[in-house]
Amino acid sequence: MLDHDHSRARSVRGEVMDRVSLQKYLAQAERHVMEVEGHLARQRLLIHKLEQHQGRGARAARLFLRSLEEMQALHVADRDRVRAQLGMTRPPQRPIQAARQSAR
Hints:
Layout: E1 8-10, E2 16-18, H1 19-53, H2 58-85, H3 95-103
Antiparallel strand pairs: 1-2
Helix pairs in contact: 1-2
């Protein structure tokens, strides 16, 4: 929610954040999303290995995966909310992402 001067936005807790603070918060939110993506990939690999080799222990690993997925959904929603507050409609692209999309 933007203030009247459009240079400040309200956080979830109702605090007023300036654009620089929002950009820093967005960078942190982006890092969280990327970090959890790595955790998700490792957990899925672990589940795959457990199911192939033991058949046991995968249940607990799947429950943990579900928790990670729920946490990731919260991180993504938070990141998207901050992007919207900053007026960003799409995430900033890394050079490799931009090259891949232009090749399509």
